[in-house]
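Hello,

Following up on my earlier ticket. Below are the two sequence lines again, exactly as submitted.
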Amino acid sequence: MAAEDTAEDAAQVAAQVAGAPAAGPVAGSGEAPTSVDIPHEVRIAFAHAAAQHLVDRLGARAVHVKGAALDPSLVPGRSYSDADVLVHPSDVPAVLSALRDHGWDLINTFAYGSSFEHSATFRHEDFGLLDVHRLFPGTGPTPEAAFESLWAQRQTISLGGRPCAVPSRAAQACLLLLHAARAGNDAKAARDVDCVWTSATDAERTGVLEWADRLEAHVAFSVITGTLDDHAADPAYDLWRVAARGGTRVEEWRARIRAARGVRAKLAVAGRSVLVNVEHLSIVRGAPLTRREVVAEFFARPVRGVREQLHRRRVGS
Amino acid sequence: MSSRGPAYEPAEDVGAVVSPDGLTVWVAGLPGGPIHVLEGVAASIWTAATSSPAEGWRTRVAAAWEQSADAVAEQVDAFVADLVARGLLRPAG
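Thanks for your patience. The regenerated structure is below:
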């Protein structure tokens, strides 16, 4: 390289340094923030890091599951759209409160998130979507005990530059299968099952089965092994049958009521079955619902349930 | 500062992700954002300043851009000082 070139290049590098960073809220340049494309995976990594940061501050405990937290050797190239964090049940209220205090908007509550009422969804303008799990569907014997089992054999990985606890590799495989068990005919779930179960080695399968035992996940795991009907007497059977094979809204709510433990819990679920999930509908519509829309949806749900029931009867007859 | 460790580290309330090619670094305030984007030379400076060993980190920046350390030292130091002032970096303890 000629001396003149070197001098010129040095000037260019110095100029770049003086003006950098190049984007985002711009440090060093004094310019106003500019809009830039930030990869989806980066935003999600920071969602994990932000959740962990709050968990650490609170002295709480959480394990990061699926998505960016998944061991990449389990399902190579698996895509993801949000961050999932399983929080110790007793720490959940504090974590939810802290998230709301730091720019995270609650967009779906536990009660309306899924039939299993396991997660609350938050959205952040920079970091995207975060699912806070208070339990992992299918695991037991209690959410607390399941968390402790996973925590006892946790590993640590870096997500968004922050050390985050994740389950052991075999536990991750087991959780992925339990997630697939309630995904019906979803192609991504089918690939998960193929990678971590169907095509797995005997040793890997043994490891998964050990975790299914440890987490008392027999009913949910029976979806994977095709033996769900052996558990027809279990209160959770219908819930898993509907999740795995599909069903009407009425069947889904019946299953939720059957799976709820205790009279009070059953009544609470039954009460919710006729309420309208305003939060979720607002997200779907992209704007807050009007009172009229809420009323319309209130009546539409039972009608929809009846229509689905009628349709199934016709199909079945 | 330990000469075996890095010269700087991300501040307590900061997370960072480096692109596979090392040419972009995303730096986020935690837990509420925002995300800062460092590209090119800025990314090199962040990576070298936060990588071990501390000794020679400016030289590593300069070498990555085929420059002498003397030619860019002043600007590199000014940029790092700016990152520290913004609460994104801190001297490694």
